[in-house]
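User: Fold this; tokens only.

Assistant: Input:
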Amino acid sequence: MKRYKFIVRTALVWALVLLTGCASLLPQSKNESSAFNTFDEARAAIEGLRPMQSDLATLTAMGIDPAKHPNTTLLTHADVVRRFVPGSVLTKSDLDAGVVACLEARDACRGMDVVAARIAKRRTGNFFADFFNFSRRTDTTGWRFNAVILLVDNVVVYRTWGGQPLLNETEVNTNPLGPLQDVGPSTVNVPPSVIVH
């Protein structure tokens, strides 16, 4: 009798856990590739750079250090040329004075392509529908930020920024056959005489 009560209690506890906490059993992931906590913080840091005044030490103090900030690409003079003068359509008058200064400085010109993001992916919805692959809903939230900084002799001559301040996406995958959805022609043997060429 004691064993029966124990089994019933255990079954009730598991049923309660499955009914109330199923959503918490779904997978979650985070991608935090930034020293900045928010999009506005990253934007304020880039806007705080003063062309022809801020230098490499200022960048390091703001947390923009290629050695420490992930996903920062160092740009060579050739990279800057490819990015800002992709064809012969643009002239010097079309470009920012800082970009022109960097292009004319040749080997003294270098840049940084800073990419920052904080992305969270969370599967929501019915646990059993997700587990058995009938329906999977993934909510993606967060932000993405990118900036380009050009320097001549370690002095900032140009900076610009862009990105997605608010990322909110929902992806829903529906499989009417659930776990059998992936069972397809690869498991069906078709006689050679039936194959159409």
